[in-house]
Write the structure tokens for this entry.
Amino acid sequence: MSEEQGNVVIELADVDKYFGRQHVLKGVNLQVREGTTTLIVGASGQGKSVILKHMLGLIKPDGGKVEVFGKDLARISKKELKEIRTQFGVLFQNAALFDSMTVYDNVALPLRERTAASAEKIRDNVMEKLAMMDLENAGEKYPAQLSGGMQKRVGLARALVLSPKIVFFDEPTTGLDVHKSNEIYRLFYRTQEKLKYTAVIVSHDVPKIFKLADAVALIADGVIQGCMSPERFQLSDNPRIRDFVETTMGPIYSSEKEESSLYETV
Amino acid sequence: MLKVFEKLGERGLLFLEQAGRMGVFLGYCLFCLISPPYKLRPVVRQIQFIGSRSVFVILFTGAFTGMVLALQGYYTLRKFGSEGLLGSAVALSLIRELGPVVAALMVIGRAGSAICAEIGIMRNSEQIDALECMAIDPCRYLMVPKFIAAVISMPLLTFIFDVVGIIGGYLIGVVLLGVNAGTFWQSMYSSVAWQDVQMGLIKSLVFGLLIVWIATAKGFYLHLERTGGFGAEGVSRNTTNAVVLSSVSVLIWDYLITSWML
Ligand SMILES: Nc1ncnc2c1ncn2[C@@H]1O[C@H](COP(=O)(O)OP(=O)(O)O)[C@@H](O)[C@H]1O
Ligand SMILES: [Mg+2]
């Protein structure tokens, strides 16, 4: 619905990336607009996390460029990159919590290191975020003592604690049961409503997450096959997208033919 | 034959790449070290980890080093009828050489390996990436406190090692083997000069820096090291490499500093 509105905050132009001889990204073009939720979907191992890491400036492209807020990440100084990253919040695929610190300290770390807030201010802010994630009683625990879903919620709290402008989610619900993943979506919806951030989500949870997205992009064969609204995505006549929509949303177990094709791809 | 040169060249390039990377890393960490903001609490914590927790090991190894020095020195010196010089022999060997070197080797085993593994695991589990994405400089946040702590702790540990070693030497030489106590202290007092203490101090400072530099850089660049292992195995091989490299570097620098100062 909002494809044509809002400024472009992240732009990938013809991004190429090799890992050794493996050509992972073959000219990826993608735009993320301010205030929208962009969803990146695609089969496992197609390079979704790699795209995200390019946007974060953790990986430099071998060709093409990545621009965030109009600045080419490969050409700016360390200091400017740091400046841009102060606007980011990231939920990593494996949460990447600091495992030798308590949950409370994990969430408090960005505040302690990046702001001059007093201890009470920090405590209030952290407790508010932990309460938002239903983690009030887990503050003294260590990440290893938490379940996967709780770790993701701690990661989300940490990502949101400094009110970022852009938040990246790498598979926020993978590995969680339906109940837990619904909870993550509810939290996502609530926090975005409140904090109005731009979101980039990588997810497999396809029919459900379409409700939250403004734009959906499919990556296959190293290129973005199309980036459009969820409604148009589901009706697209690009064969790859149609294939994806059919396998993920169609009635998978309805016929023998489809069942056997499912086994082939697994 | 060509293959051999190819392999050698490849090795050489890898070595240069690694050396360059570690040099830049050291420069950047030192830059972070001298530029504000300064934070005291993480430094205190690291001093506790690198310094205080090594004290027991240092006491133990120091005492035994001094004792064995006295034992060996006594029988050697007696051949020349100069047992009276035992105090000076024990003190000089400890202050100039054995104190800084053995203390450094102990700190490598206790703290250097732990630092390298800790940072390597953080690299492996994307915690360092997470820090960078939060716009927190990993060098400033993780490395600088360790650098400061090592440079403060190492001379103090060496000092403790020397003192305990001399007491151990006294116990063996005077109490057990019957050297005159007065001669023992007198020969020490007259032969140990300020330069000897200075040499020990410089060595311990350099070793402290070397140990923390190699441990942190090896851990930080775990993903670029070609150790031949991944994950937990990569961390363990990398840590072993760091321990070997820092022990060898300590011994080489010990020789260099000695030949420069004598
Ligand atoms: N650091 C790396 N080194 C080598 N290959 C990598 C690295 N990161 C990702 N790859 C490869 O890139 C491809 C895409 O990975 P990734 O983006 O993690 O997939 P996904 O879409 O499931 O997130 C995979 O084939 C993977 O093997
Ligand atoms: Mg991934």
User: Anything to note?
Assistant: Residues 40-261 of chain B form one domain. Residues 86-124 of chain B form the longest helix (39 residues). Chain B has one domain: 40-261. Chain B has a mean pLDDT of 91.
